[in-house]
Each structure stands twice: as structure tokens, then as C-alpha cells.
Design goal:
The structure holds two protein chains of two kinds. By secondary structure, chain A is an alpha+beta fold. In chain A, 23% of the residues lie in helices and 36% in strands. In chain A, helix 2 (101-111) packs across helix 3 (116-129). In chain B, 78% of the residues lie in helices and 0% in strands. The chains are: A alpha+beta, B mainly alpha.
Chain lengths: 371, 260
């Protein structure tokens, strides 16, 4: 990685080796990532993985222990939050309780000493675009969660920041409202042609919204990629498991072609030849990875790898069913059509297309359960 | 067993409130009794003692002195207390525990000792007893109360509100002026009321540092010793009622949400 102090690339924001220590605890290990212009970027990870800390470092609310953050090529580490052209939508909205909706939204513009008439028209436009103009005279306590959410959004983007930070902004809403707001958020991001940096632990939300997902785990970045990329080409067992709970079979790498990134993995269901993720290295643990929906009943057609397994559990899901099976010491989950005959306690012959198999770095994290 | 425990607790509660409030009720009773003696039997109903208080120039002068003490003391303690509370709740520094401990220490120093120490010190630095010395010594006694009340309000203010203000471009002063101050306003007012009441009721320190400018509390105490009269009951009742009103007002302010 480059530690160049004058980045020349066209990214909006570049984080270079940013690191955060609290006393003896390292919350964020030197991480590197870029945020392109006009892009919805999501940091996805479980609570305590350091994702909010990264957001707060970019917003200026936490100092960074080491590393650099450049916004449009300019270092911003020593810039105070009130001088950064960045605005935040806080997790609990943080609306000012003593100010009316319109005054909450006008706050940032007033701080910039903008003319009153200009403030009024901008506030009105911002409230229009989140469909809150009719409630401009209300106080925050007189609004529902979803309405407060919209005001918080308007209050942030009315300032025309270069980057909008959103810290789990939908966390407090119920499921239906959340789905609704996801659509609105994505819509808003496109309309404003603005980059969003969004933090969430909800992978469905990350998939629904993001152009780029940064998967984090205990202070480190596990993978950066598009949702499709993250889902279909996970780097390692952590990402494969965290995103949609892929099936993982531990194996031993017997052959590895580092230029073609293909290898042979010896597993319980036989030795398979498959594509390897970028982080796979010889003499390090590797696992075979495939999704539940990529498993089918063995039909004897070529191009598949087939294996025997023992059915231990069945969950009916309408048009399909989740079948938990055992192969030696591993537990796998197959998503089969509802009309495939399966009986608990009986053996079954399953198959996966060879093209769907992928060798990823690491050992399976934990025993899998049907969700 | 549980029942017996319950009735013991109940009896205790009645006894407790009895000891606190019966004397005050008796005072109220005698302030309306026509006899010169503060003793049973009651002889008849009168407002004379109250009339007498309102016509007593000495008492009126004492009341003016009390105000001349209480209003500056309220201002001093509220401003300094707000500042101390802000430091306690908004800044991190190495000596903060020491700062907090020194702030509440006056709670634990017996007032008499504190008062004597004050008099000696003020005398040593050449200050004559008078209004200013009462302002100083009362403020020192009342400051911890005020600081704690305001700090309790500040603790409850969501820190992300101040971060949001900064995020939206507010510099430290603007952040304080536009967000923190409006949100702590009710706490400051509540603390001011309490400070005012504490100043009115303060006796020990005032007695030692007031010299010839005697506030009401000092005046009343000396009257109770030298010319006991039911009119003092009337005065005491007026003070009690006044203070109760102020305390109710301050609690109402403290509990009131910034916006409902």
C-alpha cells in the first residue's frame, strides 16, 4: 500500500492506514479504503467491530492515532469537525429538542451566516425533498421516529456536504419503516449525487443500498467489494459466513497456481479443483465455499461434484426448504425445492456445480445452524 | 412477619414526618393565636402578629439586607456553579477527581468551623465585616449545591446533540450559546432558586461574617433569644411559605422538559 502524502487519484476520500487506540485496546487496525465520488459506501460489521469509530474519525469526533485521511486530496486530520465539509446523520438523530424542525434544518446554514432569504428557500427545498415541509413548525418531540429520521437527513444534506456520514440511521425504526426508508435513502443519494458513507450491522440493508461494501471484523477490514462480489466471491471464511452463511468445508491445499488463482483442495467430499480467493496462500488454512442454493440433488450429470450426506433437519420455507445435512464432521445447509423427497435420518445424494465452488482463506468459523 | 415489619415502617414514617412538620404547624397555630404567650390553651384568633411584622421597621430593614445578600449570592453561585458544572461534565483532565473532591468538600466541613475560619481569614487579609464578606462566605457554602444541581442536568443532556452542533459548523462558543445553554437553562434557573432559598435560610456563616448589616436570619435568631413574641411565629411562617413556593417553582422548572 502507498503511504504517499499527496494522493493524486480522483477519489473523494482516501483513508490510509488509519488506526485507533484506546489506552490498551486497538479499536481500529491500520485500515485502507477509498470512497469514490457519487457512491454509496457501507461499512458492514457486527457491533464493536470498529465501524462507528471509523465514521467518527472521518467526522472529526475522534482523533486518529496513526494514518491519514484525505478529502479531495487535502489532509483533514487536523481540521476541526465544524470546519470539515462533511455532515453526519447520528444514530439517535440528535435533533435539537428546543428548536423547531425548520430551525433544526437551518442550523448549519445559520452557522455559515447565509442570508435569511436564502436560508429559508434552502430549508424549504430540503424539507420538501424529504416530504416534511408541512411539519416545519413542529418540535422534534412531536414527530414519529421515521419523521425525525427525515429531518435529521435534511438537516445534514441541506449544507451540501462533500460526504454524508450515516451511523446506523435506520436502527431505531421498525422493519416496515426501515424497508421504506431504505428506498428513500438510496433515492436521495442518487438525486443529490453525493457520496454516502453508511454504517450498519444489517447485511440485507447493506445489500439493498450499497455500491461498495466494506466488511469489517474486530477492527480490521475483511473485504471491500460490490454486493455481488462480496456475496459470490468472498475472500475468506469470515466474510463467507457473515454474509448469508455460506457452507464451508475445511480442506488441505494440495496444488496451487498463484497466477491463475486456482488450486486443488482435499476435503471430505473429495478433492476438488476450483478458483481461489485473493488471500489464499499455500500452507495456510483454506476452505471450500458454496451457497445453500447452489446445492441440488445429484442427477448424475457431469460438471458436478457429488457427495453423500445424512439429513438431520428440515425447515419448510414455502416454495423451498432448508435441509441440514451432515458429511463426516461438517454440517451443511442445502436449499432444495419443496417437492424434493427428503426424510430426516435418511442418507441423500447431493451435488454442486463445479463452477460454483470457491476456495477461500481460513477455517470454518463456527458450527453452522439453520436460521 | 411482613405485616409487622410494614406497620413498624409506617409508624416510623409517621413519627418522622411528625417531628418535622408538627413544630411548624404549631408555629402556624400560635402565629394566629391572640395570646402573648406561646403556649396552650389557645385564646382566640388574630392576624395582629402578622400586622405587627409588616409594621416593624427593623424587620423590614432586615428583609432588605437579606435581599441585598441573597440576590448577589444567587448570581455569583449560579454563574460560578454553571462554570464548574460544565468543567465537571464536559472536560477531561488529570486532576478532575481532585477538582470534584475539593468542590464538594465544604459539605463535610462543620459550618461553625468553616465560619470561624472565614472570619479569621477575612480579618487577616484586612477585609471589614459587611455585605461583601457575607457574599463571599455564603457563596462558598452554597456553591457545591448549585454545582451539583446544574451538573445533574448537564449529565442528562445527550452528548450527541453537542456533536451534531459541531458537525453543522458551530464553533465552541456558538455550540454553547445555541445548544448547551438553552438545554441547561431550566437547570440553571432551578439552581438559582435553591441558591436564593439557601441564602435566605443561612445563619451560622452570616452570623459570624455579617457584622452590623444583619440579615433576617440573624435578626430573628437574636430576637428568639432576647424578645420572644408570637410575631416571630408569624415571621417564621411567612418565610416558610415563601421558601416552599420557591422550591416548588424550582422543582417544576427542573423537571420541565425543554420542549413538550
Amino acid at each position: 500500500m502507498s503511504s504517499d502524502n499527496s494522493p493524486t487519484s480522483s477519489h473523494l476520500l482516501e483513508a490510509r492506514g488509519i488506526l485507533k487506540d484506546y489506552d490498551t485496546f486497538r479499536a481500529v487496525h491500520a485500515v485502507y479504503f477509498d470512497i469514490p465520488h457519487n457512491c454509496f459506501v457501507t461499512i458492514l460489521g457486527p457491533s464493536g467491530c470498529g465501524k462507528t469509530t471509523i465514521l467518527r474519525m472521518i467526522g472529526g469526533f475522534e482523533s486518529i492515532t496513526a494514518g491519514s485521511i484525505h478529502l479531495e486530496g487535502v489532509p483533514i486530520m487536523d481540521v476541526m469537525p465544524y470546519d470539515r465539509p462533511i455532515n453526519t446523520v447520528f444514530q439517535n438523530y440528535a435533533l435539537f429538542p428546543h428548536l423547531r424542525v425548520e430551525d433544526n434544518v437551518a442550523f448549519g446554514l445559520k452557522m455559515r451566516r447565509m442570508k435569511k432569504t436564502e436560508i429559508r428557500s434552502r430549508v424549504n427545498d430540503a424539507l420538501e425533498s424529504v416530504r416534511m415541509a408541512s411539519l416545519a413548525r413542529r418540535y422534534p418531540s412531536q414527530l414519529s421516529g421515521g419523521q425525525q429520521q427525515r429531518v435529521a437527513l435534511a438537516r445534514a444534506f441541506v449544507n451540501e456536504p462533500k460526504l454524508l456520514l450515516l451511523d446506523e440511521p435506520l436502527g431505531a425504526l421498525d422493519l416496515k419503516m426501515r424497508r421504506h426508508m431504505q428506498v428513500e435513502l438510496k433515492d436521495l443519494q442518487k438525486r443529490l449525487a453525493l457520496s454516502f458513507l453508511y454504517v450498519t450491522h444489517d447485511q440485507e440493508e447493506a445489500f439493498a443500498l450499497s455500491d461498495i461494501i466494506i466488511v469489517m471484523n474486530s477492527g480490521r477490514i475483511e473485504q471491500i467489494g460490490t454486493p455481488v462480489n462480496i456475496y459470490h466471491a468472498p475472500e475468506n471464511t469470515y466474510v463467507a459466513d457473515f454474509i448469508g452463511g455460506a457452507n464451508l468445508l475445511e480442506g488441505r491445499l494440495t496444488e496451487f497456481d498463484s497466477s491463475a488463482r486456482r488450486g486443488h483442495l482435499e476435503t471430505e467430499i473429495g478433492t476438488v479443483e476450483a478458483a481461489c480467493s485473493g488471500s489464499v496462500k499455500p500452507d495456510e488454512p483454506a476452505s471450500l465455499c458454496f451457497r445453500a442454493e447452489e446445492i441440488g440433488v445429484d442427477t448424475g450429470i457431469g460438471g458436478d461434484i457429488s457427495f453423500k450426506a445424512l439429513v438431520s433437519h428440515i425447515i419448510f420455507q414455502g416454495s423451498s426448504k432448508l435441509v441440514e445435512v451432515h458429511t463426516g464432521k461438517h454440517k451443511l445447509i442445502a436449499k432444495l425445492d419443496h417437492d424434493v423427497p427428503v426424510t430426516v435420518g435418511e442418507p441423500i445424494k447431493l451435488a454442486v456445480a463445479k463452477a460454483k465452488l470457491r476456495i477461500v482463506h481460513g477455517s470454518p468459523v463456527v458450527a453452522k445452524e439453520i436460521h | 412477619m411482613k405485616n409487622r415489619g410494614g406497620s413498624i415502617l409506617q409508624g416510623y414514617a409517621f413519627a418522622f414526618y411528625g417531628f418535622v412538620y408538627l413544630p411548624i404547624l404549631l408555629m402556624g397555630l400560635f402565629s394566629l393565636n391572640s395570646s402573648n404567650l406561646i403556649a396552650f390553651p389557645l385564646t382566640g384568633f388574630t392576624f395582629n402578629w402578622y400586622v405587627q411584622i409588616f409594621n416593624d421597621g427593623r424587620i423590614f430593614k432586615g428583609l432588605l439586607t437579606t435581599m441585598a445578600v441573597a440576590i448577589p449570592v444567587t448570581l455569583i453561585t449560579t454563574v460560578l456553579g454553571s462554570m464548574a458544572a460544565l468543567v465537571l461534565t464536559r472536560y477531561q483532565f488529570r486532576l478532575k477527581p481532585l477538582f470534584a473532591a475539593l468542590l464538594v468538600l465544604p459539605f463535610f466541613v462543620p459550618k461553625l468551623i468553616f465560619a470561624i475560619a472565614q472570619v479569621t481569614f477575612l480579618n487577616d487579609i484586612g477585609m471589614d465585616k459587611g455585605l461583601i464578606t457575607v457574599w463571599i462566605s455564603q457563596s462558598l457554602i452554597i456553591l457545591p449545591f448549585v454545582t451539583i444541581i446544574i451538573a445533574s442536568v448537564l449529565y442528562k443532556i445527550d452528548k450527541s446533540l453537542e456533536e451534531a452542533a459541531e458537525d453543522l459548523g458551530a464553533r465552541p462558543w456558538q455550540k454553547f450559546r445555541r445548544i448547551t445553554l438553552p438545554l441547561m437553562k431550566n437547570g440553571i434557573l432551578a439552581a438559582a432558586f435553591i441558591s436564593f432559598v439557601l441564602s435566605n435560610a443561612e445563619y451560622t456563616v452570616s452570623f459570624f461574617t455579617s457584622g452590623r448589616v444583619q440579615p433576617l436570619s440573624v435578626l430573628v435568631a437574636s430576637d428568639f433569644r432576647f424578645h420572644l413574641s408570637p410575631s416571630l411565629n408569624a415571621l417564621a411562617m411567612l418565610i416558610v411559605l415563601f421558601n416552599i413556593c420557591i422550591i416548588i417553582a424550582s422543582e417544576w422548572l427542573r423537571r420541565r422538559k425543554v420542549h413538550q
